[in-house]
Specification:
The protein is of the alpha+beta class. It has one domain: Orthogonal Bundle (Arc Repressor Mutant, subunit A). The protein is built from 3 helices and 4 strands. It has a 4-stranded antiparallel β-sheet with strand order 1-2-4-3. Helix 1 packs across helix 2. It is elongated and about 75 Å long.
């Protein structure tokens, strides 16, 4: 009697929609070396399902590219955020 094997492959795809608002800006990322879409730290946390503190820890550890306005608003490079997964 022969044993049958069934191989199951599961693929998943993720689509992320970011609505433009006053909190998203296109700005120069010094690390990427080009203008990129930037989101606030709060948006970055929501997009990746992290706490705000976790996002800030990644910024402090240089795991995320960022820029800060003279008023103190922190913007995260969307390219580096998406690379983190």
């Amino acid at each position: 009697m022969r044993k049958r094997r069934t191989k199951i492959t599961v693929e998943s795809h993720q689509v992320m929609v970011i609505r433009q608002s006053k909190a998203t800006v296109k700005a120069w990322c010094a690390v990427c070396g080009e203008p990129v879409q930037m989101v606030t730290a709060e948006q970055a946390a929501r997009l990746n399902g992290l706490s705000l503190r976790a996002v800030l820890r990644r910024v402090e550890a240089d795991q995320l590219h960022f820029t800060e306005t003279p008023e103190g608003t922190l913007f995260i490079c969307l390219n580096s955020l998406m690379a983190q997964g």
